């Protein structure tokens, strides 16, 4: 049974999707990525892996979670990600999507309350009950209609500051950076020399 999709739908996006003149190939890889993401949301290991190439890799850059090779990626999905992606109140707001010939880049804002252990994003951290809102970039490679790789990035220092594990005082950290991504009219940070 499919679960509710926490990803904001295209007509609700803050930004735009791709370039005005997408090619058929770009539309095709965008559809492959959408199918892959939906399989993840549906917590369907078989369908998730069916969207992937024979020798994929997945790297969650801030925590180095993921895997290299089909079995390692499958193991990571099964034991650490599918069904454990976000708590029930989790939300993904797509800001923009750039579609190239062999890659799709999604710029998102991810929101959730840290009520569960999430070892892909906060390994070893017990739930804090704190709200989280971070900007995230996901790069998905696609060749011959299959996902070859995923690279996922976010500002881990801001995340740790939001849940109270890092004091941002005196550091060049902006824990509320996602608010600026969602509302570009908010003021930028001022520096002492300004």
Walk me through what this model shows:
The protein has 194 residues and is an alpha+beta fold. It has one domain: Nuclear Transport Factor 2, Chain: A. Helix content is 25%, strand content 28%. The protein contains five helices and six strands. It has helices spanning 24-41, 45-50, 70-81, 156-162, 177-182; strands at residues 52-60, 65-68, 91-99, 103-113, 131-143, 146-154. It has a six-stranded mixed sheet. A hairpin with a 4-residue loop joins strand 1 (52-60) and strand 2. Mean pLDDT is 86; it is low at 1-5 and 8-23.
Properties at a glance:
alpha+beta, 25% helix, 6 strands, globular, Nuclear Transport Factor 2, Chain: A, 6-stranded mixed sheet, 28% strand, 194 residues
How many β-strand runs? 6
Secondary-structure element sequence? HHEEHEEEEHH
Radius of gyration, CA atoms, in whole angstroms: 17 Å
Tell me the number of structural domains.
1
* Uncertain runs: 1-5, 8-23
Give the biggest sheet: 6 strands, mixed
Short description:
The protein is α+β, with helices and mostly antiparallel strands and 194 residues long. The protein is built from 5 helices and 6 strands.
SSE blueprint and pairings:
Elements: H1 24-41, H2 45-50, E1 52-60, E2 65-68, H3 70-81, E3 91-99, E4 103-113, E5 131-143, E6 146-154, H4 156-162, H5 177-182
């Amino acid at each position: 049974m499919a679960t509710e999709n926490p990803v904001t739908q295209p007509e609700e996006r803050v930004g735009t999707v791709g370039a005005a003149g997408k090619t058929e190939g770009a539309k095709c890889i965008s559809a492959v990525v959408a199918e892959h993401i939906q399989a993840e949301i549906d917590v369907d290991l078989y369908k998730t892996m069916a969207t992937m190439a024979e020798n994929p890799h997945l790297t969650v850059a801030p925590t180095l979670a993921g895997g290299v090779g089909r079995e390692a990626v499958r193991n990571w999905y099964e034991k650490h990600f599918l069904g454990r992606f976000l708590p029930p109140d989790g939300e993904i707001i797509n800001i923009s999507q750039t579609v190239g010939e062999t890659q799709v880049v999604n710029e998102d804002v991810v929101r959730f309350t840290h009520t569960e252990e999430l070892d892909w994003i906060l390994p070893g951290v017990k739930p804090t009950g704190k709200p989280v809102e971070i900007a995230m970039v996901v790069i998905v490679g696609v060749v011959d209609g299959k996902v070859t790789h995923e690279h996922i990035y976010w500002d881990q220092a801001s995340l740790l500051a939001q849940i109270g594990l890092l004091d941002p005082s005196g550091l060049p950290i902006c824990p509320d950076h996602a608010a600026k991504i969602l509302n570009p009219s908010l003021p930028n940070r001022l520096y002492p020399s300004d």
